[in-house]
Amino acid sequence: MNYKEFIKDLEDYREEHKIASFLSRLWYQIQQIPEKISCWYQRHTKGYCQCDVFGLGDYIIGKAYKPFIEFIRYEEEHGMSLPLKFQSDPTAWLVVLSKIEYALTDAWKVENDIDYLDSLSVMNEEQMKEHVAKVREGFLLFGEHLMDLWE
Q1: DSSP assignments along 100-130, one per residue
Q2: What is the pTM of this model?
């Protein structure tokens, strides 16, 4: 069996089992209703739910990513806040922010962009080491300058 025959057989199988697949997904969604209600209640009473705790890093990235990107855009346009150590060189602060942005963007894309993982998989070993080092540096800078993120 060649590749084209395999794809045709797969499409035929999916077509034959379309209704069963739909019903299976529907049943799964119905089973998830109690958990979704529980999570909704927990998020509105505690601010988070138990499923957020299991993937705390993903939860933090999901909450921090978009506001941080907005913070950077505001800093680039207005330059309002500068930590004391960057008073003499404001552009160095923007460099630090861009390194943090790289790390947060990578973590956000890993969880939210299916195609991004494919782009990472084509990197050779040297490129991957460089990428991981940049992400690690960005997160270290994020931890170091977390309290400097104010306007």
Answers
A1: HHHHHHHHHHHHH-HHHHHHHHT--HHHHHH
A2: 0.71
How does DSSP classify residue 47? S
Secondary structure E strands in the chain: none
CA pseudo-torsion sign 75, 81, 85, 90: positive
DSSP classification of residue 60? H
Helices within the chain (DSSP H only)? 3-16, 18-45, 50-54, 56-78, 90-112, 114-121, 125-145
Instruction: Say which amino acid occupies 28.
Output: Y
Distance from C-alpha of 107 to C-alpha of 127, rounded to nearest angstrom: 17
Nearest-5° Cα angle at 97, 121 to 107 = 30
Tens-place pLDDT, residues 97-140: 999 999 999 999 988 887 888 888 888 999 999 999 999 999 99
HSE at residue 65, side-chain half, CA atoms within 13 A, is 17
Q: Please report, as a single letter, which amino acid is at residue 2.
A: N
